[in-house]
Amino acid sequence: MLLLVACSSPDAPSDPAPDPAPDPVGTPTRSASSPITTTAPTVPPATSPAPGPAYSTWPLGERPLPVGPDGYGVVRPTPATLRDRRYPTRDLLPPPVGGRWRSGVGPVTPAIAARLAWEPGCPVALADLRYVTVAFRGFDDAAHTGELVVAASKAADVVSVFRALFAADFPIEEMRLTALAELDLPPTGDGNNTGAYVCRPTTGQSSGFSAHAFGLALDLDPFQNPYLKGDRVLPELASSYLDRSRVRPGMVLAGSLAVREFARIGWSWGGDFTTLRDYQHFTATGR
Questions:
Q1: Hey, where are the domains in the chain?
Q2: Across the chain, what does the average pLDDT equal?
Q3: Could you count the other beta carbons within 10 Å of the beta carbon of residue 276?
Q4: Is 203 exposed, middle or buried (0-12, 13-18, 19+ CB in 10 A)?
Q5: DSSP secondary structure string for all residues of 78-123
Q6: In this model, does residue 83 exceed pLDDT 60?
């Protein structure tokens, strides 16, 4: 801090007459030709903090849908608050220090396996899978840590894709493991978990394992990028996002960064399938 002090020199000539002391702010003043006036104090304009993002208000996971004869929830129109979906991310793992990119690859330990949709009889042994953690940017603009399980041979490639998405601030709502018990929960049609390994059949089929059951497929922001085959939409409340011309955050579009990055590691995109559209889906097997 600089302090400016006014000093007078003993050799300097004195002013012929001192100026009258200024009137205090807000006190009356008079001139020879004008009436008494009042000088109003200057008040700086009021400022308010910038508003935070507007979040969706739909109560996630609380309203089960009726189940149709195919075992899936009945498709319903997208609630207004979900047509431009945005929720803050709930941290299950500590966020990356300083909001910087972080990643890790390790074995699927028994503790991790207990939280995973895996059981004896699944087509891949736990030793052939890897537990992956990556930083991601949420729809709340903050950095978070997500977790995935993928095939051991694909772990490094998958990490490189999410590094590029993080650098580009591509938003992801949540990224956590899917537990076996979740596969039997009643459908609510509002899920949006970015995930990879799940030991389950191919969607729409009662037999034959999905590429997810081999750790060779991944779904990215499923609500913003729904599955469509005939009149079947998954998640069941995500029909608003079938309009791919109305671009909103989190959507995967032809030629977009996510498609290019997965293509770089040899994975194809379900948005290019011919008999259905699976905009969330990336796969190393082509299915």
A1: 91-283
A2: 87
A3: 14
A4: middle
A5: PPGGGTT---PPPPSSPPPGGG---EEEEE--HHHHTTSS--TTSS
A6: yes
